[in-house]
Amino acid sequence: MDENSIANFQSYLKEEAWDSVHNSIDVNIIFNTFHCILLRHFESSFPSTYKSYSPNHNGWFTKVIRISCQRKRDLYSIYRHTNSPKAKEFYKKYSAILKKVIIDAKKQYYDKH
Q1: Which of 10, 32, 81, 97 sees the fewest Cβ atoms within 10 Å?
Q2: Residue 56: what pLDDT?
Q3: Are the C-beta atoms of 106 and 60 separated by less than 8 Å?
Q4: How far, in Å, CA of 84 to CA of 78, rounded?
Q5: Which among 49, 50, 41 has a CA at the least distance from the CA of 5?
Q6: CA–CA gap between residue 56 and residue 106 (Å, rounded)
Q7: Is 12:45 a contact under the CB 8 Å cutoff?
Q8: Under 8 Å between Cβ of 33 and 21
Q9: For the residues of 12-80, what is the DSSP string, one character each?
């Protein structure tokens, strides 16, 4: 965030017509409208920069492990949204297996190098 981006963000907020926020009665609608406006101006003033992923950065981090990590994140999301004991148990077992796979992959990779 540089000074120019901050000034840009502030000018967007000053120029915004806040009527949609002030004219509503429901607190939830007011907050959601305010939040959307704020995020829109924030994201346009401070665009995200992503670090490119280099698949060869870690030799042990294979495509299978990457897919498994994504699956673990998906399982966690399912568990958090359903709050099911079965989902929690499955997530924990999957995490434990994945942890062992990652440890073994690192061990094999660094033993060779």
Answers
A1: 81
A2: 53
A3: yes
A4: 9
A5: 41
A6: 14
A7: yes
A8: yes
A9: HHHHS-THHHHT---HHHHHHHHHHHHHHHHHHHS----PPP-TTSSTT--HHHHHHHHHHHHHHHHHH
Q: Are 75 and 97 in contact (CB under 8 A)?
A: no
Contact 75, 90 (CB under 8 A): yes
Neighbour tally for 16: CB within 10 Å: 14
The answer as to whether 79 is a domain residue is yes
- The answer to pTM > 0.70 is no
Tens of pLDDT along 61-92? Answer: 888 999 999 999 999 988 888 888 898 999 99
Q: Quickly state the pLDDT bin for 11 (edges 50, 70, 90).
A: very high
* Statement to judge: residues 38 and 67 lie in one domain: no
CB atoms within 10 A of CB 42: 14
Domain count, the chain: 2
